[in-house]
Every structure is written in structure tokens, then in C-alpha cells.
Amino acid sequence: MIALSDNTATNILIKQLGVNAFNAGFKTFGLEHTVLERFLFDEVAVNQGKENKFMPRE
């Protein structure tokens, strides 16, 4: 339940704020290699080659 709820909440935030806002925020925090390109579990976007990139060292 938590995994589904957290992912749903994340997708709602992405929809409300937009991908660009997240990416700008990542840059503000100094996360140069972390990039959001799509909603979580979006198979259509995955098939288009869009992938979210999160770097553990950041």
C-alpha cells in the first residue's frame, strides 16, 4: 500500500508542478545528474526512451 500511495502522490506532484520545476529544484540543490523525464511507471514514456535518472552519490 505504501509503495502504491507514495508513487501515486509523486505522480500527482509531477502533474501539478511539472517536470521542469522538479529539474530546476534538483539543480538548486546541486544535483547535476538527477533528471526527471516522466511519471513513475509510465510504460508509454519508457517505450519512447524517456527515463528518470537518479544518482545515489548525489
UniProtKB/TrEMBL annotation:
<dbReference type="Pfam" id="PF13354">
    <property type="entry name" value="Beta-lactamase2"/>
</dbReference>
<feature type="domain" description="Beta-lactamase class A catalytic">
    <location>
        <begin position="1"/>
        <end position="57"/>
    </location>
</feature>
<dbReference type="GO" id="GO:0008800">
    <property type="term" value="F:beta-lactamase activity"/>
</dbReference>
<dbReference type="InterPro" id="IPR045155">
    <property type="entry name" value="Beta-lactam_cat"/>
</dbReference>
<dbReference type="GO" id="GO:0030655">
    <property type="term" value="P:beta-lactam antibiotic catabolic process"/>
</dbReference>
<dbReference type="InterPro" id="IPR012338">
    <property type="entry name" value="Beta-lactam/transpept-like"/>
</dbReference>
<keyword id="KW-0378">Hydrolase</keyword>
<protein>
    <submittedName>
        <fullName>Serine hydrolase</fullName>
    </submittedName>
</protein>
